[in-house]
Amino acid sequence: MAITNISLLTLPVELIHLIFDFCDTRSIVLSFRYACKQCYTLVESYDRFSLNFDSNSTTDYATICRTIQPSNIVSINISNHYADRNESPTLLPLFARGQWTRLRSLTYHNDNIDNLEYILQCIKSNCLVSLSIHSTTYQCGKIAALISSVLERFNLGKLYMNSTVDIFRYLQWPTSCTLNHLEIHTCYYSDYVLILNQLCYLKTFVMKNCVMNVSDGDAYSPSNAKLDVGLISLTICECTLPRDSIELLLCETPLLRHFKLVCHRTTFDSIFDGLDWELFIRNNLPALEKFEFFFSYRCKRPDPFHGLSSGIASFQSRFWLEEKHWFVVAANPIKLPEFWLYTRPLSNIDYATSQARYELASINDGYRLIARPIDAISHTDLNVVCRQNHLDSVTDFALFSTTKCGCTIDF
């Protein structure tokens, strides 16, 4: 049977455009486009470009901007890492061309809020659904006014802002706000309650931390959580709140289905107690399907296995293993004076989790020496993988005692 050679250009246009979706714009416009007349035509008909303006890059943005029609751009990421570099000569003329009929996502890493305001004014159609503002400026009032205006003009579904808690003093949430995904830096508890009550379409809420301010007064008592609060996913990335304050936050979200919590402690408190979590979840979060957490505390330990068995014991009940299928791991990093307790699998954890560590999982009795990042391991990954070239770097290998049963090594 003869073998037929298939060229890329013999594929359907729709399939080639789908391949373009996974390519960077520079390669498409400055390389593929000039390969031949057919490639030129394929690029000219493509209408899902994603532009990434980076001040660190040497890419010829001026040529790219002249080549692509604004109506063919769906996403723009603007990153200016240097205060003395101005993106205005290249970017602002691009936006002044108008015809932004398909732009759905805008990400802005810059402190020049005036340029961002101009860019948003150039987007005339109601197409923008995602806006991310990464700014270190303290012009909270100006940013808040801009965000309020954007929420009034567009049917925004996703908003990210890394401003400080002060921004909520100025921010006005429109009554018709369509946000379903909100990511912020930090807010007060009173702002948290206000957000849940005013953003009726909100489904996913991600924050770095929540602050209990004594000026909130009576806001610290449970606010009789409204059953129409539709939040189903809550993430707190660097939580410093005590256990009772965390529970207060969760009492506002009776329909929660996903909860992710990252805490770093200096003492071993009740946040490490699986029984307390079990009782609270049973009584207050009946719809919770996925609970991800990473807890750590600084400690001194006499040996590398110290505290692993006792730390994991309260997470080995029927509730954790059979009802919810939430699997927990206790670990002692070799080079850090810390104790870790985390769920497996765990995604997108911003911490030095690739440390070599001794660990004990709630689903078995075997101790393991492991060095892979936490978010690269699934709860079904129980195979022993031992590479000889890694063993030389494990200086504490001799700490394994013959009295420790079921000990394996995993890298």
Automatic annotation (TrEMBL):
Under what name is this protein listed?
A: F-box domain-containing protein
All copies of domain F-box, residue ranges: 5-53
Judging by the UniProt lineage, the source's domain of life is Eukaryota
Q: Which InterPro entries match?
A: F-box_dom
- Pfam families from the entry? F-box
